[in-house]
Specification:
This protein has 301 residues and is mainly α. It contains 10 helices and 6 strands; from the N terminus they run ααββαβαβαααααββα. The chain binds zinc ion (ZN).
């Protein structure tokens, strides 16, 4: 990293930069982009193609000559930039972006890059629905955000989830039961790992209980929690994605993982805990047993 940027960082983040650059065998660039929408964005590419753009990566793969990866953090302004809600502590947001790069190049975790053979990004009104980008972001942030505090101890862990935006009838959220389940599950993951406020955690439990999803969702995040402590972060990520397939009722071969520039489906040899039943069946069971399917769930307080 250029001296003028690296020298602005606290010593512990300078060491993190060194760790990533050594593992990736390349320097991290800083791109100042005052017009960007996000505050900051970590970027990694192989011959100009990001792993999240699988078709481009497949084309690059054919050449068999990737060269070194390019790593950048794109920033709108200062490296110490804060936000009022999520990142009030200086450098917490920058540490977050570095940790994305650390996961890929030091821990070597694969990136979820397609679903059912097609790249799917968040677009338009379905931004909350299921996509590989949304799955990737949900899992990575569950791992990364608590780690930010190792580097910036003043950073609170309080990403409040707006459960009031989940309607009383999740089917009304979008046309798809699958998207509705994913919205509930991704909110649950966020509440469980990224918000230490006990009151908010209780609201999350109550809401998932009301939706009939609590038991499976809890088994899922307990499993993720165990995997986060695994010394083999690459295998743990594969297991996280396999577990997600189980609770969403998705076939594993539909999901592609990018290991740097190489793409493979989720490994078939992974077993998941037996209590990770598909969430859709939890809804079906509550509908049949109690006569109170998701369509008659009353709104949360
Ligand atoms: Zn992020």
């Amino acid at each position: 990293m250029e001296y003028k940027y690296r020298s602005q960082l606290p010593a512990i983040l300078q060491a993190l930069v060194d760790e990533i650059e050594t593992a990736a065998r390349t320097e991290i660039g800083i791109i100042v982009d005052r017009l960007m929408a996000a505050n900051m964005q970590a970027e990694m590419t192989f011959l100009g193609v990001a792993p999240a753009a699988p078709y481009g990566v497949m084309e690059v793969s054919k050449t068999g000559n990737f060269g070194p990866p390019r790593l950048n953090v794109r920033v709108r302004g200062d490296l110490s930039a804060t936000t009022f809600d999520g990142y009030p502590a200086p450098f917490a947001m920058f540490a977050h972006e570095l940790l994305h790069l650390r996961r890929s190049f030091v821990d070597r975790v694969p990136v979820v890059c397609f679903v059912a053979g097609k790249p799917q990004a968040n677009q338009g009104p379905r931004a909350l629905g299921f996509s590989c980008e949304n799955l990737e972001r949900t899992l990575e942030h569950a791992v990364i955000e608590p780690q930010v505090r190792r580097y910036v101890p003043e950073q609170p862990l309080r990403f409040v989830t707006r459960w009031e935006t989940v309607p009383s009838t999740p089917f009304a959220f979008s046309g798809s039961v699958f998207d509705a389940l994913w919205i509930c599950l991704s909110f649950w993951v966020r509440s469980r790992f990224l918000d230490l406020d006990m009151g908010n955690q209780k609201r999350a439990r109550d809401r998932m209980e009301q939706l009939g999803l609590l038991a499976v969702a809890r088994a899922y995040t307990d499993h993720l929690d165990r995997l986060m402590g695994s010394p083999d972060a690459e295998r743990a990520k594969e297991q996280m994605v396999a577990a997600t397939c189980s609770v969403l009722g998705l076939r594993r071969e539909f999901i592609g993982l990018a290991y740097g520039p190489y793409i493979r489906p989720v490994p078939v040899d992974i077993t998941v805990p037996r209590d990770l039943r598909p969430l859709a069946s939890a809804w079906l069971t509550s509908f049949v047993a109690g006569g109170r399917g998701p369509l008659s769930v009353t709104p949360g307080k």
